[in-house]
Design a protein that fits this description.
The chain is mainly α. The chain has one domain. The protein has 12 helices and no strands. It is globular, with a radius of gyration of 19 Å.
Length: 300
């Protein structure tokens, strides 16, 4: 592995892990999740479009057919990211990263069903371990009624994130297979980000249409927008460095995904421990170790 490729993998992992950190800080900074995520996607869409401006402008002339697909996936994007924000705030960064990365078994299953990908013993073992990792990382013993509500939140949200992230990855896999081609690849990514930002904007300003029912609505403020812009910049660069790593000559995508996902989980766990003093029980530590083993097996 070349030095350049190694640096790109580390940067992609670090930027991906930083997304969980910023989402966790949303509650500390008193950022409205919807407003922050909307600004995030608008920022990511703008950067994605301007990064390769000339090619995107040329591709945009014949890209109208992409809009319905981008809008559908964009709705899924912002919905799942909203769940990720809630999960980091209620369950912690470590659990969120494990649930998000373990969702890779869903697109793997989709590949087996839709594209006749090979079914191997290693993949079956990896998928079983992935499910075990999610269960271990979200397991908690509740003592008393006062803790039951918290326990339910820390279990349901990661499971929702696990399913939602898998749906996002599957939709991207389907898009790459059926929709993305040639110079339109980068533009389609911009449209995904942009449609998610547009949907978030419509939801944010729904009060103009339903004022009678939105008496307690909160309008975007500078704090939420600034946090969203920061998240959008990190979001864009996490994808950019991952794409660059995958495009490196001779690079094996399975190896890159394995290393990247493991590093994201490790970076996220370290961030949770150092920045937010998150505590890891024995079951959560076991879930972390099983997650790492699962990622390596599934990505081979």
């Amino acid at each position: 592995m070349s030095t350049t490729l190694a640096i790109e993998i580390v940067l992609a992992s670090a930027f991906s892990a930083s997304l969980y950190v910023v989402l966790r800080y949303f509650s500390v900074w008193r950022v409205d999740n919807l407003h922050g995520l909307t600004a995030n996607y608008i920022t990511a869409a703008t950067l994605s479009f301007c990064w390769n401006f000339s090619n995107n402008m040329n591709a945009a002339q014949t890209a109208a057919w992409m809009i319905p697909y981008a809008a559908g996936i964009g709705l899924l994007f912002i919905g799942v990211f909203y769940i990720a924000a809630l999960t980091t705030q209620k369950a912690g960064i470590t659990i969120t990263s494990i649930a998000g990365k373990m969702s890779m078994i869903i697109p793997i299953c989709a590949g087996i069903i839709l594209f006749n990908d090979k079914v191997t013993t290693a993949r079956i073992i990896g998928m079983i371990l992935a499910l075990l990792a999610v269960l271990l990382s979200t397991y908690s013993k509740n003592k008393g009624a006062s803790q039951q509500k918290i326990g339910a939140g820390t279990v349901i949200l990661p499971i929702m994130l696990f399913i939602g992230s898998g749906m996002v990855d599957t939709s991207i896999k389907l898009s790459e297979h059926f929709l993305m081609e040639g110079e339109g690849d980068q533009l389609f990514v911009s449209m995904l980000f942009g449609s998610a930002g547009l949907i978030g904007t419509l939801l944010t300003f729904r009060g103009f249409l339903f004022r009678r029912f939105e008496q307690n609505r909160v309008w975007p403020n500078r704090r939420s927008i600034s946090a969203g812009v920061l998240l959008g910049i990190l979001n864009f660069f996490s994808l950019l460095f991952l794409i660059n790593a995958l495009a490196s000559p001779g690079a094996e995508s399975s190896l890159i995904f394995a290393i990247t996902n493991v590093l994201v989980v490790l970076f996220s766990t370290a961030s949770g421990l150092l920045l937010f003093h998150e505590k890891l029980s024995r079951t959560k530590i076991a879930g972390l170790l099983v997650a790492i083993i699962s990622i390596v097996i599934l990505s081979r």
